[in-house]
UniProtKB/TrEMBL annotation:
One Pfam family hit: Phage_attach
Protein name listed in UniProt: Uncharacterized protein
Organism (species): Bombella pollinis
Lineage: Bacteria, Pseudomonadati, Pseudomonadota, Alphaproteobacteria, Acetobacterales
Length: 75
């Protein structure tokens, strides 16, 4: 069985300098990179992301806001 890993796809230059455990915000929601961005050779790069913060290799979960609210994820 395989599971889908949420990923961000962006221009390589926009992800430059980001590393595993760095936080990004997409549409007002915080995500943490679970690995370093990988360039694809075309000027684009992908990076796996998670809504949990990684601490020493362990995921530290935060309370999830209620659907449809403006409350942001803690981080």
């Amino acid at each position: 069985m395989t599971t889908a890993q949420p990923t961000v796809v962006a221009r390589e230059k926009d992800l430059a300098g980001l590393k595993k455990r760095h936080r990004i915000t997409v549409a007002g929601v915080d995500y943490w990179l679970t690995d370093d961005p990988e360039p694809d050779g075309t000027g684009m790069a992908t990076a796996p992301i998670s809504r949990s913060r990684l601490v020493d290799g362990n995921a530290e979960k935060f309370a999830q806001p209620a659907p449809g609210t403006e409350e942001k994820w803690q981080g």
